[in-house]
């Protein structure tokens, strides 16, 4: 039986006089792995941040875990259940060492120093990052920071992952390790990514942010005679109207 974890009802957001998006309606059910697609600047990151209370809706309602969330105190419990991986890892890492960064979340959840350390060490081991535990965080490479940032999120045992360009700055080996781990997790996710492999490996449904709105999409593959098949993602409204002027085809090649 599905359980609705988030419900956004006609939500809008503007920065100054600029409307970023308007009338956005979306539900996230337990078990969803939702790809959130769209061009740069359409508000995908803003929407993820809104879901954990870092941005406040200009209009509309946001319900998370069966409760409307408005005030800062409303979102404190949401942040205990939802892990947001920021697009820029430097926005997520602020402690002197890797181990301290990964232990910070469990400490905030009330774990003892010893418990937080054990959780941090176990999480780093799961990601193959044990050798980085005593490293100075700001001296890490971009790819190492990305994996450590994910470790800080997973250490809090969230129910929902919000992934903003999760493979940023990763080399092929690190990317494969990250995707294998994420694919193995029994966890609800929203994935913002321009990386075709990420969408193919992780998503089971898709929505497209365009022209200030969020629309449902259909994911399917087209085989090609002389090349690999391609994943195509179409807005449902485009398929209904068959209007070539408004058709959006997000095709992701293998």
From TrEMBL:
Biased composition (Basic and acidic residues): 235-254
InterPro entries tied to this protein: AAA+_ATPase (IPR003593), ABC_transporter-like_ATP-bd (IPR003439), ABC_transporter-like_CS (IPR017871), ABC_transpr_CbiO/EcfA_su (IPR015856), ECF_ABC_transporter_ATP-bd (IPR050095), P-loop_NTPase (IPR027417)
Cellular compartments per GO CC: ATP-binding cassette (ABC) transporter complex
Family that this chain belongs to: Belongs to the ABC transporter superfamily.
The organism's taxonomic lineage, starting at the top: Bacteria, Pseudomonadati, Pseudomonadota, Gammaproteobacteria, Oceanospirillales
Keywords: ATP-binding, Nucleotide-binding, Transport
Domain ABC transporter: 6-236
Pfam families assigned: ABC_tran
Name the UniProt record assigns to this protein: Cobalt ABC transporter ATP-binding protein
Tagged with keyword Transmembrane helix: no
Region of interest: Disordered: 221-254
